[in-house]
Amino acid sequence: MMALGDRDAASAAGGPERHVPVLLSEVLEWLDPKPGEVIVDGTFGAGGYTRAILAKGARVVGVDRDPDAISAGRALEDKAQGALMLVSGQFSDLEDHAHSCGFDAVDGVVLDLGVSSMQLDEAERGFSFLRDGPLDMRMEQAGPSAADVVNDLPVRDLIRIIGLLGEEKRATSVAHAIDSARKEKRFDRTLELANLVEKVLGRSPKKAQIHPATRTFQALRIYVNGELHQAAEALGAAERILRPGGRLVLVSFHSLEDRIVKRFFQDRTRTRGGGSRHMPEEEVPPATFELLTRKAVEAKAEETAGNPRARSAKLRAGRRTGAPARDLDIHAAGVPRLAEFHGLGG
Fold first, then answer.
1. Residues 218 and 176: beta-carbon distance below 8 Å
2. Segment 107-135, tens digit of pLDDT
3. How many Cβ atoms from other residues are within 10 Å of residue 67's Cβ?
């Protein structure tokens, strides 16, 4: 994930202002919140999108799986005087969260699928390969940690996770090095793992600004938090909770997430099936979304200059039709099947 490496390096050097919401003006353009509408911000984080949505007069159901984010957002919730309802939970359950706040349907859903700068900036959260901390990476601060995965998962499964989720070409070398090292001493700290990966991969003169451990840390973070499962399931939940005319806006930061979002919209906006002179045309259910962005929207040069995280951001958006929601096969949508480990993978 290029944004992760950029952001770690930038922050370590003093970097841009913390917690800057990416593609904010573009999110507001496609989300188009109006006074009295109800919007689900499924990745509340530091509340950047939510503040802007509230300023437009809409109400917000803010969801975050990180208890620190919810605690930090309580002051904004109080200030909003009933216009903001914060919910601690996963954005894959956003339909249930909206129902729990008393809404049978909502007018918009926005999701920022990237890791929060608050999590990266706190060494004790264990997301960073530039700051020493416990090898944790759990957004919810519960369940198996990255240390559990690194120390206990079979090497064949580590290879697949690092290769698929990190898109690391030398995943086999990294996984075998981890396996050899953990036989001598368990991995407990982020820099122990980062230094090992750097030793295995070395530094590329052409990519000196990108730490060699970027892709391995990305893979572990995605696996530990089930991020791709969450993203796919959130798309299905948004389809069910959005009223006709409701808008779905998603910001992703690497190809794995964007691929899932793109496939979802391609399937849900399709009106004709394949066919040939030898085969009848496939029957296609009514489209559940109208595509608002024909191609991914990217950040402008002015934004990327001040916020390196925005360099890899892609925004896609769709408008809900009145067609019934469909069942969603997350694996067909692009979520890989991975080893199960104490509730992870699958």
1. no
2. 999 999 976 655 555 656 656 777 899 99
3. 13
